[in-house]
Design a protein that fits this description.
Elements: H1 23-26, E1 30-31, E2 34-35, E3 53-62, H2 69-77, E4 91-101, E5 108-118, H3 120-125, H4 129-134, E6 139-145, H5 149-153, H6 155-160, E7 167-173, H7 185-195, E8 199-202, H8 214-246
Parallel strand pairs: 3-5, 3-6, 6-7, 7-8
Antiparallel strand pairs: 1-2, 4-5
Length: about 250
Amino acid sequence: MAQAAPSSGSIVVADWHQCKDSKEYFSKIIHKKRRKNFGLLESPVMPPHVAVDTVHYKIFISGKSGVGKTALAARLAGLNIPNLHYETTGIETTVVYWPVKLRENGRVLFFRLQLWDCGENTLRRFDHLLPACKEQVDAVLFLFSFTDRTSFDDLSNQIAKWTGTSVKLVVGTKFDLFMHCDVPERDVRDFQETWKLRVLRVGGEVSDGLVDVAPLLNCLAENLWHQDCVTAGSANRRSQQDTGTLL
């Protein structure tokens, strides 16, 4: 049975990036008001007296061509967003580090999110790529554009391909272009009610700070940590049941 998604702010402190006690941690991912770029083998380095655990997750970004998958990965990582659209010809990976503070016990964690992005046409042409993307995936971000009705209507097909993945978030891009909006709010509300999935919005100018990415990254971290806690609880219950059976 699927677990209900946690309510926003119930697991991580949502505005922690704006608090004084977070500066020591966020300074490790920001330099001169710009986000640091991390390669596959790089990570933030904390001083010896500060012990911080890092949790690793694989995230796949799904959506029709042109909805902004590559742009979203760049935005979340603090990279420059391409001015021109181009079809991703293979699999591109982007590493994002994001510190969070757990509300329950005040523990600080670094979330290492490896974002996987693959072009829609490439997935269709090469059958082996989708299984590679699905392997050990922890969450899927389903993208649609508020300026492209077909991308919204295709969400059900996108979601159907990932039935075994627990963490699913839907992200609407280009919502700020009100002069050209093909997806009215009532349709978004109906979608959320039908699929029991929250729709997040990404758009507008990219700031040098964290305001424009914090809501999505916190929501993603919250759902991933909740999934791990549920999995760990289920494993403990099975272990206790097995012990009881042996006794």
